[in-house]
Specification:
The complex is a heterotrimer.
Chain A: H1 2-13, H2 16-28, H3 38-48, H4 60-77, H5 93-114, H6 118-147, H7 154-157, H8 168-184, H9 212-237, H10 245-269, H11 278-298
Chain B: H1 4-18, H2 22-45, H3 60-87, E1 93-94, E2 101-102, H4 107-125, H5 130-148, H6 154-184, H7 197-203, H8 209-227, H9 235-242, H10 245-298, H11 304-325, H12 328-358, H13 369-372, H14 374-387, H15 394-408, H16 412-437, H17 453-471, H18 475-487
Antiparallel strand pairs in B: 1-2
Chain C: H1 2-20, H2 24-46, H3 50-78, H4 90-110, H5 122-139, H6 143-161, H7 170-198
Helix pairs in contact in C: 1-2, 1-4, 1-5, 2-3, 2-6, 3-6, 3-7, 4-5, 5-6, 6-7
């Protein structure tokens, strides 16, 4: 029961995270901003609306969002909570989690391609290209985490804190996960979630043709993914396994909120990178990940 | 005494910088050369005591190279009096190669750098401390770079930059070699106080051999790139062809020897550690590569200063080869260093005379030298015969000594390559030199009139010395050569 | 011990950053950062007294402040395009850098180090610095990046010498530092002339001297 509590919290609280990010961005630019619960309102509104489908599209347009949401939920089930291991955990489950995220992306990409629109095809190709670069970084970072963890599952790897003396290479993993958060969730140095020019979009342009409940599933899935990464960053930093449950929960939630605030700060203080420079960012992240893996293994 | 040696050119350089009048400044250079040479000469009679707490100490090896550097500097300084009279004035000149205009560097700075260069070379030769040696060799690079960029045009700048970057990086690798040497000698209980050979040599048999090997490779590559061993020689033809001829003479005759001294110091440490054979193999390898590279490039080369530069690559190869073979060849190599410095210095100074009249470095355009400059032409021919190792000159003796030692040591293959490379280089240089000396005067060249004493006296003196060494090696010199050769023997 | 390890990891990151950076100005800052980190190493190894302190202050003055100031001054006077122009891509250089790091870690595990001389990771950190520096010298187009590469390589060599510095005389260490300083100074002057004569500091234009 305890194990499911974290999943329940994720399902309920996840839409709050984009709300916090938006609020921070608004405050940084001197605006009041949308209500914190705006994502909930949006989701409620979208589920009540009807569905408009393109004539040229096949069943994939409808299946994509559902598969994507399901895959993200699958990945969430492998993530440990602050006071308990994950509902499902086994050696090597971090591979499954990474591939669940990959599957969710694949479903969205296929649905985007299915519409036959050139904008969506373009967005899909960019999303595929960048995630192909982000995936090795994710694996290297997770391997670096796994290298000195008691067990090879996410539940064993996360929540240890920065073990021992302050070993600098241990700091790289949260940093890398944060960069991945920005990349995977289409945040600013990589992609601008609020842009209005289709040519410069990556993620948003892929979902232009979705509407109603499908769009709700995509938005909800995006919020869950953001939660997944925010939780991963928090858990890789905090030694929650050694804390009493209540304190662990408090620290965990505060950590997630802080990560969301950090995302908002990054978004309001940085400009979007040119598309050509994104591979360089991910390449540097890859080098850092390799470095942290090498140093962890070597020690 | 030893303490004053590097200081004299240093002070003279500062004086040259301060002197407003051109004439006295030019003669000041010659005077510094004479004074320095005299002081160095007295060290042959009275061995000097170590100076600066043992940082400077003269052994036969250093004495030999110091004398060469001092001699070459003096010759170049006398030549410079005439040269600077001609080139010193700061006004725009037309570049004879691409037609652009350029100015020469201020003469004061040139004189200062020349003096600093001598000072740095003195430190390099007069120390047995590896760290001081390194500092000195880096200082020679820095003080000679402005000398190469005396004619401020594109090509000399390109040459200077290559020289600076390749040699600086090379010498940085030599510093790594130095550090590896001290790793090899590391002893936590009784740490060695300095990098002085006097301290290191007794400890050498107990030093860690893998580290010594690595150190030697880095020192060889590092100092070797400064010495012009192929394949690290790329800067050498550029710098030698673009710098003023008297600087080329100093670079070839004195600086390359200083870098070689760096490698020899490493050999001195490795031999007692039982790694003499390892050093020998590497030196032979690099020596042969240098000779073959020079032979390949020198054939059909249309630029006579580059030709001399490649000939320096060849002779540096011979030096490395001689020391690498060991035994009688080491003595040959020491003698060869002396002969090469004298001859190549003379040749570069003579090439400056030709360049001043013909305004071209091309062997095809500079024809009829014997009609325009009879004395220069005679010296050019004699110098060519000398540098190729023809009989009456000293290089014949030293090259033969190395060849004999190679056969005696059973290095048949190396000897074959050595002889073939020498033959190819002889033919390659003969074609160019004969073409230049003979033939009609090109119509564009005005007859320059009688030759000035200052422009032929220095090369004549140097060549005469080289000729003398071919006929007779004085006993005192032979002693020092033998002791220097014994110091770098590979057997231990 | 933890302090020196953190320093060395930071140095390794800096070495990799040399290869990834695309702006000359950032490259200058990285030089400064490396200089400051290097200045801290004698203190972290030998403790803050005597020899180590003098060396550390000198390194801070020359490598942490002097070099970056010289390079930045040259950069601002040259008015060149502020982008590092590589002969091959940044990600390739970075990959090569990680490869170099792996190689040097392997080498460290193989070499018979004198016990107690080098703290762990010092040798790989020094070697990657030399490697990055040499990569900057050969794989970048601008003459200024060659100077910075030379500096980075020299810093690596210096790092390797730090644990041994306690033995030798501090004057010799200082004169080595001074020599390198003058080298960079002379290179800076040459750079000015190159910029004036060629109207660029692209070494790809050096093509008039050939055989």
């Amino acid at each position: 029961m305890n194990a499911w509590l974290h999943i329940l919290a994720a399902l309920v609280l996840a839409p709050l995270v984009p709300g916090i990010v938006n609020r921070v961005k608004a405050r940084m630019s001197g605006r009041v901003g949308k209500p914190l619960l705006q994502t909930y309102f949006d989701l409620a509104k979208l589920t009540r609306k009807g569905l408009v489908e393109s004539h040229t599209a096949s069943f994939m347009l409808g299946v994509g969002p559902a598969v994507s949401l399901a895959a993200i939920c699958g990945a969430l089930c492998l993530l440990p909570g602050p006071a308990s291991p994950a509902p499902a955990s086994f050696a090597g489950d971090f591979m499954l989690a990474a591939y669940c995220l990959g599957l969710s992306r694949l479903a969205i990409i296929l649905a985007a391609l299915d519409t036959g629109s050139s904008f969506e095809g373009m967005g899909a190709s960019r999303e595929a290209a960048f995630s192909a670069l982000a995936e090795p970084v994710l694996f290297l970072a997770l391997l670096a985490l796994a290298a000195d963890a008691p067990s090879l599952s996410l539940s064993g790897m996360l929540g240890q804190g920065l073990s021992g003396a302050l070993a600098p290479e241990r700091l790289f993993v949260p940093l890398l996960l944060f960069i991945l958060l920005l990349t995977e969730n289409c945040r600013i140095p990589v992609d601008d979630p609020n842009t209005h020019l289709e040519l410069t979009m990556i993620h948003e342009v892929m979902v232009l043709d979705h509407s109603g409940p499908d769009m709700a599933m995509i938005s909800y899935g995006a919020a869950l993914k953001l939660w997944f990464f925010a939780a991963a960053v928090t858990l890789s930093l905090l030694p929650v396994q050694a804390m009493p449950p209540l304190a662990a929960w408090a620290a965990f939630l505060a950590g997630v909120v802080l990560v969301a605030v950090a995302v908002g700060l990054v978004e309001s203080s940085m400009a979007r990178l040119r598309l050509l420079r994104v591979p360089r960012l991910l390449g540097s992240a890859g080098a850092l990940a390799a470095l942290s893996l090498v140093l962890t293994v070597w020690r | 005494m030893l303490a004053a040696l590097p200081l004299i050119p240093l002070l003279a350089g500062l004086m040259a910088l301060a002197l407003p009048a051109d004439g006295p400044r030019r003669w000041l250079l010659a005077a510094v050369g004479c004074l320095h040479l005299t002081l160095v000469g007295t060290t042959w009679v009275h061995p000097p005591a170590p100076a600066y707490g043992g940082l400077l100490e003269l052994d036969p090896l250093g004495q030999l190279f110091l004398t060469l550097a001092s001699l070459l500097f003096t010759a170049a300084a006398f030549y410079a009096v005439g040269y600077l009279r001609h080139e010193g004035a700061v006004h725009e000149k037309r570049d004879f190669q691409d037609g652009a205009t350029f100015v020469n560097a201020p003469e004061r700075v040139f004189s200062l750098c020349l003096c600093l260069f001598l000072s740095a070379m003195t430190v390099v030769c007069a120390t047995r401390n590896l760290s001081v040696l390194w500092v000195g060799i880096e200082a020679t690079t820095l003080s000679s770079a402005p000398l190469i960029y005396f004619h401020r045009h594109r090509r000399s700048l390109e040459a200077t930059w290559k020289y600076l970057v390749i040699c600086s990086v090379g010498i940085a690798l030599a510093l790594l070699g130095n550090i590896l040497v001290s790793v090899a000698f590391y002893d936590p209980v009784a740490p060695a106080a300095s990098m002085d050979l006097a301290e290191l040599l007794p400890l050498a048999p107990g030093a860690a051999k893998p580290w010594l090997r690595a150190a030697f490779i880095f020192l060889l590559v590092g100092y070797g790139s400064k010495m012009g061993l192929a394949p690290m020689h790329n800067w050498l033809p550029d710098a030698h062809s673009q710098s003023p001829s008297l600087v080329s003479a100093l670079l070839s005759g004195a600086l390359l020897n200083c870098a070689f001294l760096g490698i020899l110091r490493a050999v001195q440490i490795l031999s007692p550690a039982g790694l003499g054979a390892f050093c020998g193999e590497l030196l032979v390898l690099f020596g042969l590569i240098s000779m073959v590279t020079a032979a390949v490039f020198i054939v059909g080369l249309g630029d006579y200063k580059r030709m001399l530069a490649y000939s320096s690559v060849e002779h540096m190869g011979i030096l490395a080869l001689g020391v690498g073979i060991g035994g009688g060849a080491a003595f040959g190599a020491m003698l060869h260093a002396v002969n090469h410095s004298l001859t190549k210095g003379a040749l570069f100074l003579i090439s400056g005379n030709i360049l001043a009249v013909y305004h071209t470095r091309s062997c095809h355009d500079a024809r009829g030298v014997s009609r325009a400059l009879p004395i220069t032409a005679a010296l050019w021919t004699a110098g060519f015969l000398a540098i190729c190792g023809s009989p009456p000159f000293g290089l014949f003796v030293s090259e033969l000594a190395i060849l004999r030692a190679m056969f005696a040591g059973g290095h048949g293959l190396a000897a074959t390559i050595y002889v073939i490379a020498l033959a190819v280089i002889f033919v390659g240089m003969a074609t160019s030199v004969c073409r230049m000396v003979q033939g009609p005067l090109p119509p564009a060249v005005r007859h320059p009139g009688p030759e000035r004493v200052l422009s032929v006296a220095s090369p004549l003196a140097l060549l005469a010395a080289a000729l003398t060494l071919g006929l007779y090696v004085p006993q005192g010199l032979a002693d020092v050569l033998a002791r220097a050769a014994a110091a770098v023997s590979l057997g231990g | 011990m933890a302090a020196i390890q953190s320093l060395l990891v930071a140095l390794v990151v800096v070495n990799l950053a040399y290869l990834a950076v695309t702006r000359l100005k950032t490259l200058t800052r990285i030089t400064a950062l490396q200089g400051v980190l290097l200045a801290a190493t004698p203190l972290a190894i030998a403790g803050p007294h005597g020899h180590g302190l003098v060396l550390s202050l000198a390194v801070l003055a020359i490598k942490g402040i002097g070099f970056p100031w010289l390079v930045a001054r040259t950069l601002s006077r040259l008015e060149v395009n502020p982008v590092v122009e590589p002969y091959f891509g940044f990600n390739m250089s970075l990959l090569a850098g990680v490869g170099g790091l792996l190689f040097s870690l392997w080498l460290e595990s193989r070499l018979p180090f004198p016990p107690g001389l080098f703290p762990p990771l010092l040798f790989p950190a020094a070697l990657t610095s030399i490697f990055s520096g040499l990569t900057l010298v050969v794989a970048r187009r601008k003459a200024l990046t060659q100077v910075i590469g030379y500096l980075a390589a020299e810093n690596g060599i210096f790092l390797l010498g730090v644990p041994l510095a306690a033995q030798g005389s501090v004057w010799l260490e200082l004169s080595v530092l001074l020599d390198v300083f003058v080298a960079v100074f002379v290179m800076g002057i040459a750079l000015h002339h190159i910029n004036k004569t060629f109207e660029s500091i692209d070494v790809g234009r050096f093509c008039s001297l050939r055989d």
